[in-house]
Records
---
Amino acid sequence: MTITAQGATVATIPVTLTVTAAANLQVAPATLTFNYQTSDASAPASQSVQITSGSAGTTLNWSATPTSTGSWLQVTPPRGSTPATFTVSVNPTGLSAGTYNGSLLIASGGASNSPQTMNVTLTVTAAALPQISTVVNGASLAPTVAVPGEIITINGTAMGPAAGVSGTVDSQNFLSTTVSDVRVLFDGVAAPILWASATQINAVVPYEIANRVSTRMTVQNQNQTSQALELKVSDVAPGLFTVAMTGSGQGAILNQNGSVNSATNPERRGNVIVLYGTGQGQTTQPGMTGLVLGNSLRYPVATVTVTIGGQPAEVLYAGSLPGAVSGSLQVNARIPQTLTATGPVAVEVRVGGTPSQAGVTVAIQ
């Protein structure tokens, strides 16, 4: 500007106009997608969104407002200033299977491109239907019939949580029949569960199926029920536990002094060994489904015999295992003095004339 006045010196005032581009909100990513299956133990992991002004040295105040039917979409924090990162999370509780669309309205009064809309998609899928592939004796791992009190292993898919969960014992000393929303039913009677995972369940056949010809077993997971598997019911189907938990080889056996029997710790002839198994069936004092027994011992109704190296062994005890769930079997037997074989020697338990699996051994010196 030039300023003149009569009798005065001309004055010049310089004026500068600086024109800059308006700040823009920059949001990344542009969209968000979440996936959830109703059998999942927790909600999908939250996701982060970065927000900047797009101009160095420029700070913009912003707000992020979620919109979703049922309020499943959440933002933390809901407002701030650039540069910043906010977290987007979803709460799928109560949502049925389907695709849900929500949005975030991101606004700033100082930005030329405000507001912006970010689309958020949540896909909810139903839990997969549990599938049963095999049912085996929990000790022998051989395909089995259903025996009252028998510890069984159920193999399949989508039967429980990905990470296995152990059963618990309540204040009345009963093993739980529901583990992480998993149940096993025999003709509608819930079975005690020792372990439950997506691919394997260890459970105890309820004593209530005694005297039936057959039983229909189903697995429930997250309110999804498998197809029923019909199993023949039998009085006994004995199996012995092994060290490798494969159903064969070195048995899970204790020596007379309480040490673990093994190739490097064999037992002498004439001494007593302790074997462990399941599938002995009903007991003289009727079994109670899921009861973890104390010192109130119960004995199989059927006669228990033992052979070691093909020779009859004296049975000193055959009955319940204190501290274990009903259906567990402990057998104390004396190694025959006349036995000449050493090393791994075949051992067999018969209950009511039905033998345990072949291939189980005891180490003899």
---
Amino acid sequence: MLRHASVAAALHSHFASFKVDLDVMGEANSFEKTSIKVGRPQGVPELEAYPTKYVERSVIAAEGVNVSTARTESAIWRIINGNASLKVHPDAAAPGYAILPALTASQQLPHDHPMVRSAGFTRYNLAVTRHHDAEQRAASVYDLFGQSAAPYFDFDSMLEDHESLVGEDVVAWVTIGKEHLPRTEDVPLITNFGSSFLLWPWNIFDRNAGMDMPRSTAAA
């Protein structure tokens, strides 16, 4: 704990959750995990001599804790449209948007901690569910102080009905965080503090969309 001129600052966490409702070329979307593996992929004789990097893709069939959820890891999570006719190139993976946590932290407290019970969304950096109009928030406004053993709203309740995520209207709940270990330079204004995630178009355009900027019409 840092003490500074009548101010006491303990180690604590900041978390923010965003409901990301992506409709990729329509509402019939799916949730895909792309992992980068190292080894000798079966059925490829040309790659048997030495270990190599290769891609392994899987579409998550249904909701579930530790199934349609993720913490920061070396994988690429995408919301995709699996309709093959929408591909911009026949050899490309399905079009979609990748959700990539950039600078972020994960929840370190155990799941049964009162703070975590009241803010269950902090257990995951990403969770994907079916879209429902009634599911507007990742936590209840009545669970602000996080001291209840039986919170008003349990985030996992949106995952435990195991609804299909293939060709459906899906929602990504993205949680980013920061472990705040106070320092003297935080007084009187906190600096160098932030967290973020990226939404990357992935096989949506036939080339870098930044190349399609309009030319200047100003007179030379």
---
Amino acid sequence: MKTRVIIIDGYVDEPAQFGVPPYISPDVRYVFGCYINRGVQPEYYTIDQIREREMWNSLNNCDHLILLGGVSVPGKYVGGNPLKYLELERIAKSAPKPLKIYHGPYTSGYTSAGGKTAQEIKNIGELYDCPVTGNIETYLYHLLKGDMPSESIGRDPEIQGIVAPLGAELIRQHPSFPDVICEIEVSTGCERKAHCSFCTEPLFYGRYAERGVKDILSEIEKLSENGARYFRLGRAANIIAYGSGGGQPAPERLRTLYTGIRKICPDLGMLHTDNANPGYIARYPEAEECVEIIAEYNTAGDSLSFGVESFDEGVISKNNLGIEPDRIIKACEMVNRIGSVRKDGIPALLPGINLLFGLIGETRETYEIDFDYLRRIKERNLMIRRINLRKVMIFPGTPLYRYTEKNKIKHFNKEFLKLKERIREEIDRPMLEKIFPVGTIINDVMIEYRKGNIAFGRKLGTYSILIGIRDQLKVGDKVSVKITEHGYRSITGVVIRDQEA
């Protein structure tokens, strides 16, 4: 069939999925693959390209318009700016003719910042013909066959196995190609039976489900054939649980996955992951072997993001966080013991800690407790790659949202700002000095932007460190850098010229 299709990548940022450049989400590749499977070559644009080229008025001249993206966690962005509600509305109103499909967090609600409750977009069914709340590739696969699928349709592994490899060629159209990080879906949902009060995983993805090793490797093989060299095993609430089916860890299955990736793409530039549950790590002895596997087969500078959220036992209990503070420290110790070995001068694998504020039961004392535990971690000579401090986004359908309908949550903005300052000064800088000591050489640092006489860049990776360089470098340049100074959240270095190498 001769059909003109426009796919707009509005970038997704969720607790278990990155899709903001230089990342590209799996969902947008799956959608591309659905059309390739039907013999249609879609046109792909990022939301930044739509903005920069002023393409709003040209979107009506197509048959299908698919918009993906949105955020359900607060963040600051350099590589691109995710879709805003007004843009979601503008795109719909600019294109009355085509069949319009939207998939992303805004089907549940929209908020522009952390610390706020997401408001339901009540007219989304008027703006978009198909606001898909279920699995996008299953929905689209059936729709293109001529079926009438439910917008809440669930995931079908067989369909995913068909369209994921077909969507691999999309990366060649990404504006960051070949320096694009392919987010690889490993699992969906969370293996925990009872979820945190704010969690959107069961809301967006339902019960815990894993992809088969064979399907993941098949997709990575096609991505590699299309020039991909940077991969993140994301789209998972807990990478350590992969292969477990929701039970105890299955190290051999994780090993099969990692060794398979290394065999398929021996010249890869990055193999990282993201989320891990510290309670799960501390509970199961088999988790240690899983951490060893990741540290052995990944590339340098990887981070396991621990969704700690709070060290305050009152907050932990009232929000069903399911972890004792001492177990968090135990998990940090394990990852440090295994992952602190240096690859290319950088630790192979370190924990990262996410702290979340605006939860049920929070008091002024919560901020002191959180800082005290971070101080204890530092005093034990443990390294933490980064500490993220965020205010919760409250989405309709979560237990936290239902709680706020009847109860008021206290906010402690002064304490939040004070805690952030103390962590930056007393924890972050000493950590950076330990992780990236003066003289450390970091290769393949890509310049992202300039500010005055300073160029800023990072090596592609998960939560890669920002490096300031006083040099006349252009955006897109790749250089090797020797570290000379440390800030609170970034480091400074000098370019290593060829004659110095």
